[in-house]
Amino acid sequence: MSSFDAFLLLSFGGPQGPDEVMPFLRKVTAGRGIPDERLTDVAQHYLHYDGVSPITAQNEALLLALTKEFERRSITLPLYFGNRNWHPFLADTARTMAADGIGRALVLATSATGSYSGCRQYREDLARATVDLAGEGVSAPEFVKLRHYFDLPGFIEANANAVRDALGQLPPEQREDARLIFTAHSIPDSMNETAGPTGGLYLAEHTATARLVAEAVRGPGAQFDLVWQSRSGPPRVPWLAPDINDHLRGLAASGAATTSGEHAPVRAVVVAPTGFISDHMEVMWDLDNEAAETARELGLGFVRAATAGTDPAFVSGLVDLVEERLSGREPVSLSGLGVCGRDCPSTCCPAPLRPTAEPAAQPARPAVPATES
Ligand SMILES: CC1=C(CCC(=O)O)c2cc3nc(cc4[nH]c(cc5[nH]c(cc1n2)c(C)c5CCC(=O)O)c(CCC(=O)O)c4C)C(CCC(=O)O)=C3C
Ligand SMILES: [Fe+2]
User: Fold this and answer.
1) Is the peptide bond prior to 88 cis by the omega test (within 30 degrees of 0)?
2) Residue 352's pLDDT band (cuts 50, 70, 90)
3) CATH class assigned to 6-149+311-361
4) Which of 86, 155, 201, 230 has the most ligand 1 atoms within 8 A of CB, as the residue to mutate?
5) Which of 9, 117, 278, when mutated, tests ligand 1's pocket best, judged by the most ligand atoms within 8 Å of its CB?
6) pLDDT tens track for 86-105
7) Closest by CA position to 119, among listed 105, 132, 108
8) For the chain, which residues make up each domain, given as ranges?
9) Per CATH, the architecture of 153-304 is what?
10) Tens digits of per-residue pLDDT, 248-275?
């Protein structure tokens, strides 16, 4: 059994005012081949909310809820918070942890699934912070990233609660037939193809979450759609499709195939962003503004389900995940995909080739240790 002396919440980060929007976006997209028009577009999403991304406040709320749950269960690890792209930056947090005498920390990333963007890039961030601190003569803690939690019972329960609440907001006559649509962040097809030890893990994990939530709400074999949102990158590069807006148009035009093979008109949808653990900018802009507007134009009833956020079932599930590592308890996998993201081979989820980026603009990628138990 291994011992840990701290817990680190590791996230993406987001701007906290209008002046921070462009510097944040440049940092996120450096060397990524994202067209300038897309950057200007996304800047408008943030500026619409006075340049404040919701993600930092959401993470602070999660950290507070986790702190309380640690206390309730008498887990004495101190909790820290650091980000990849904005304050508090991971390297600063790691420096504080080192000064506090932390030797080994469990890390929870705010992405529940695998892929380069959702998993490996966080491992690289941890490795880079360690290298950066070593350059200052500081020895960073050893970081151990927790496994993926896309099928954690508490995550499924929190999302199922949210879908039930959303269905309850539809007019009674639309509830039973409302289409359950799950969304996650689109990624390039090629990133999905290389996700996980044998490929396709991003799609497999999001499909598992969607199925488990749909079945928790409507019973075994329940119908559901899994679609994608927030695509970026040049149009000629294929990303996971269909996009939520195209999907809504398709449903309105041709209806949905029922189990008996007929096409029934779709009158209402519940859209559950199970690919996000809290209300990120992508959820607020791409769903609450854009997709809601598409549905309105099509005359479709539309309710967006809440994200897991600080739902007590989710918070408790995350602390189960911590206790699993503290006590060596057997992991629970509801989906049958098994334990994902724990002992990753070094070839797992490789950084995508970015043909449009200047080689010099590529940040140096520190080696990621193959295993880390
Ligand atoms: C899989 C995935 C998650 C995981 C889900 C999770 O971890 O929750 C995620 C999270 C997030 N992505 C975020 C923001 C952005 N992502 C971008 C760009 C990209 N994301 C990608 C994928 C993902 N992204 C990809 C393949 C790109 C293309 C560039 C590249 O190959 O790296 C861009 C650039 C502009 C644009 O093109 O949109 C921005 C601003 C925020 C913060 C939101 C806030 O402020 O609330 C969060 C949590
Ligand atoms: Fe992103």
Assistant:
1) yes
2) confident
3) alpha beta
4) 230
5) 117
6) 999 999 999 999 999 999 99
7) 108
8) 6-149+311-361, 153-304
9) 3-Layer(aba) Sandwich (3.40)
10) 999 998 866 555 656 678 999 999 999 9
